[in-house]
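Bench notes, afternoon.
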Amino acid sequence: MRARRHRGPAAALAASLLIAAAAHPAPPHAAGDRTVPAHAAPPLGFAPNLGQSDPRVSFLAHSGATTVFLSAAQTTLAMPGAVVRLSMAGTDPAARLEGRDPLPGVENYLSGRDPRGWRTGVPTYATLGVHALYPGVDLARRGDPGELDDELVLAPGVDPGVVELRVDGAGSMELDPAGGVRISAGGATVVERAPRAFQLLGGVAHPVAAGYRILDGRRIALTVAARDPAAPLHVEPALGYAVDPLDPLGSRGFDQAAAVALDAAGDAYVGGATGSSDFPTTSGARQTSFGGATDAFVSKLNPTGTALVYSTFYGGSGFDQITGIAVDPAGDAHVTGYTDSPDLPTTARAPQRSLRGQGNAFEAELNPAGSALLHATYLGGTVTDAAEGIALDQSGSAYITGFTRSPDFPTTPGAVQPGRGGADDAFVTRLSPDGASLVYSTHLGGSDIDHGAAIAVDAAGIATVTGVTASANFPTTAGAVQRSLAGGGGDAFVTRLNPTGTVLLASTFLGGSGDDEGTGVALGPSGDVYLTGFTGSPRFPTTRGAPQPGFHGGGHDALVARLTPALTALVYSTYLGGSGFDLGQAIAVDPSGSAYVTGTTSSKGDFPVTHGVVQSVYGGGGDDAFLARLSPDGRALLYSTYLGGSAPDQGAAIAVDGSGSAFVAGVTGSVNFPTTRDAVQSTGGGGGDEAFVTRVDPMATGLLYSTYLGGQNFDPGALLNPGI
């Protein structure tokens, strides 16, 4: 259960644009001119890599907004908001995938302007096979949208213990009650389902008990009970994947807050996504009826958290989610996110009024009463694009970052990078104050995977972006803190653009030998850049006097860093975490230069907490949210606290007012999440995950308010969306 984000290019793979070979556009899951029986989901078609992707890829498949890259020993899922790589250790390097069971029709890959790079008439297969993946072990693979089904056949006497899976790009892994392994990876959920094992004895299938063990934070081992050593063993694991906020793998309702912002009066504006048809809305709101599978929502709470000033859905008939929100001085809420709804409400002067790809980013502005759209537009190309963060300048221009897989993502003349660099590029787009035109729009990335995660803007209109890159040639500038990719699954990056998007003012990597990602960025009163995220690197660059100079392990620690405006030096840099998985998700800075960070921790009892805080004890359930405040020089934790109940809880967004009160928004599955009396919703609505909004006093000794925010009636249609 991830609230959002946390991306994680764990593999260096180049995606490409798929264009169906049929004369008319095919539905999301149909490639080429396949014939699909009525009411039947088409099988996943595996296309051989004939030069349309990275040479390390043998086959690839497209499943809604997800691209699956495969080689004999490795599967990589490239999903909006996350990239997860699963590798089988110790396999025969000579083993090769081969296509079996050809499907009707072909696929064409027309990526780039040079026809010499196009690939047409590419066949697809329903089954892939590997002979002798390990000595005496063969593999067959099939797929349906959202799931890969494998069959391992082990020759008599072969030890199943040779099969070991390494997972990269995961935020956390845990055994689920059904015996599978649940992998949380930023904006996505992957489940390695409990394996089914059997032997054919005398022509009859005899079941054999099988399961998984998590060896550490990255490795999964197969375990099998006693069996007949003279007969082959068949093991059938299945890999399911889905993009949050929908969580079809768990089949639960959900309401998830992903963004929070404040106005001058202390009202909190919260944005996210909901699958609840009875999510609380207010009279006169722009959209009081549930639109489709998942709707975005915007809710405005009064300063005491006791009433909704307004609350509205925003969505069409498909999947819609808000990932970023910003509020201007007039009280207008500017939101951004992801949609695959062809009927998302837009306005007359929007630069893009229709959905172009499988999913596009969007931007919209609501008036202070939440009753009208002042402007609204799609933003994207013909494949998949998703926005992750938004910021406003003093003129009211909205700056958006995220990622694009579209070779025709809209860019502007003179942009820093008008063309696509690799598989996924980050993007930065600035809209005019009236939302009617693009002031600038640019790709940002190298030849591999690059995702923008968060953005901040200063008074001069300089945009600062952070995210993650796996590109060794990601653009950096002279004198930057780190000019080369350190390795691992990817490094965090920080990049600053001039107000017209035509000059890269400063740009740097930041990372070590493991997976490192930037997820939140803020600007301090002196113009310094504050960064949070997470790192799996034992040698992530830290500074002398940091409150936690060393890696505590468990998979990932959160990171907090402060850089000079030119990105030429670290003012401070520290780990923040315990023995579990710790992920920084968002950061804010007060006028004194103190940094406030929220995120998620699975460190049970040894996450660094301070005396006298709201919650010094781990709540349980796998994850708690956390909230920490660092001194301006980064040498001390002014406070640090857990925030959660007995089920998973995750902090996703943070804002700070002038008094130093922190507002945290996120998602909780806990029926006993800490709330306050007279809150908008002091008890959960039931049925699954719910949003929460919590306001904490300046030293985190008490809750000024804390509330659930959600509905009870989960719409089962949310489980049927073909686009995610």
